[in-house]
Design goal:
Alpha-Beta Plaits; 15 helices; alpha+beta
Length: 450
């Protein structure tokens, strides 16, 4: 039987490759907050083709004595399996196509899957169903781009930034040597740590073989200073306060006892920043290495400035535009999508979403509610971009899509999963939207950044 989830999976294709085939009846009722209800009536004669196709599919899946799979006549299938089974099998494609036709005929721009409810469904009688849909909210007013100005800022790299990058490279090439002496400010210490409050260990406050670089700031102010002078085998207990900005609110600004046992002290042997160091990294000289780093930093700074310009331009475009009221379901769906993106991002870093929720003492629903403001902003940005592209007649030609697919394919020649996604149904349509948004954002940036 038809469900909204199964319906949604094929709806976009139905609309993009739609061919009218029903002389059906449909009535639309506009609802508040950019929603609508479509009532569709299908006569049995109008779905005759779908019924026969459904019977053929059932005959293919069901063993019917005396006939090869898929070869049993319609009347035999109806006799053996029942007329209701055929109608239920035919319902999904019939309703999907009828909905697509209704949306096209009424010139509706819908968002997301519809809520389908059958009002009448009995073999041999007209099918009547309702489809409650979200309509794409209209942009009531899009500003003249002359009203928007984003100031261009310098993306120049300083010598200090180049020095910092070289120091990080130096740190990455640093070797460690165990020493039998007290730790100095330039050393690394490996320790076991237990954090307690009122002699009770904190949840997640125990760690073994924890490496601490005494040259770097620690998240607990004063922690590294307490380790100076300690040597392998030493134990020490000291009290420090968690920072006021600590992510666990119940610990922020609170004092705790830190019990440490030193497992080892290591001297850090850093290479000199000279030609030999540069050669170890594949460059002919230190000057060449420094120049390469400067160019890479400059490229990164330019990209960062470009991103800032684009974000500022989009924020200004949205701020100066007016929109129809957004459907609650649209906002809720976008917020839910953002929660999913957060969970996926945490998983990529090896973190569990449920553990993250426990640490910040929030539920999934609270996180979702936190995202509502961003969800509204994201939706309005998409609507404004779409309207700008329509107003300025910005389109993507097939050659641009083909080139982008070739580029993506060449970048994932040995990635079977990526290749499968590239070949998947709907990928080209999604890519076309991405390219159109990219062209529209570039058009906007060129017009307003000065």
């Amino acid at each position: 039987m038809l469900t909204p989830d199964r319906f949604a999976a094929m709806l976009a294709r139905s609309l993009s490759h739609f061919q009218p085939f029903f002389p059906m009846q449909s009535v639309i009722t506009r609802l508040p907050k950019s929603e609508a209800e479509i009532i569709v009536t299908l006569e049995p004669s109008e779905i005759e083709g779908e019924l026969r196709a459904a019977a053929a599919r059932l005959a293919e899946k069901t063993k019917i004595e005396g006939f090869r799979p898929g070869k049993a006549p319609f009347e035999v299938v109806k006799l053996r399996l029942g007329e209701m089974a055929i109608w239920q099998e035919a319902a999904e494609p019939a309703v999907r196509k009828a909905f697509a036709q209704a949306v096209t005929e009424k010139e509706l721009s819908t968002v997301g899957p519809p809520e389908i409810n059958f009002k009448k469904f009995a073999p041999g009688n007209p099918i009547e169903f309702s489809a409650r849909v979200m309509l794409l909210p209209a942009v009531l007013n899009l500003p003249d781009l002359k009203e928007i100005r984003v100031e261009k800022k310098s993306a120049a790299i300083t010598a200090k930034e180049v020095d910092a990058a070289l120091a990080e490279l130096q740190r990455m090439q640093t070797r460690e040597r165990a020493v039998e002496r007290g730790a100095e400010k330039k050393d690394k210490v490996v320790l076991d740590l237990t954090i307690e409050r009122d002699r009770v260990p904190l949840e997640g406050g125990q760690t073994k073989n924890h490496g601490v670089f005494l040259t770097e700031p620690y998240y607990i102010p004063g922690f590294t200073e307490e380790l100076v002078g300690l040597k392998k085998g030493d134990a020490k207990t000291f009290s420090l306060a968690f920072p006021e900005t600590h992510f666990q609110k119940n610990l922020a600004g609170q004092k705790a006892d830190f019990n440490v046992k030193i497992i080892g002290v290591y001297e850090l042997l850093s290479p000199a920043l000279d030609d030999e160091f540069a050669k170890s990294l594949g460059q002919s000289s230190f000057a060449e290495l420094r120049g390469l780093i400067e160019r890479n930093l400059q490229t990164g700074a330019g990209e960062k400035e470009r991103e800032r310009e684009e974000v500022s331009a989009l924020e200004s475009l949205v701020a100066k535009s007016t929109f129809e009221e957004l459907p609650d379901r649209l906002v809720e769906g976008e917020a839910e999508k953002m929660v999913g993106e957060l969970a996926a991002s945490l998983a990529e870093r090896g973190l569990d979403f449920e553990d993250y929720l426990k640490k910040i003492e929030k539920t999934r629903e609270q996180i979702k509610l936190d995202f509502v403001g961003q969800a509204i902003k994201r939706i309005k940005t998409i609507l404004a971009l779409r309207e700008l592209a329509r107003r300025e007649k910005i389109e993507v030609v097939e050659s641009e899509v083909t080139r982008e697919i070739e580029k993506i394919t060449n970048a994932h020649l040995d990635d079977a999963a990526a290749e499968g996604r590239i070949r998947s149904e709907g990928f080209t349509d999604e890519l076309r939207v991405v390219l159109k948004n990219r062209k529209t954002i570039e058009f906007l940036r060129e017009k307003v950044v000065r």
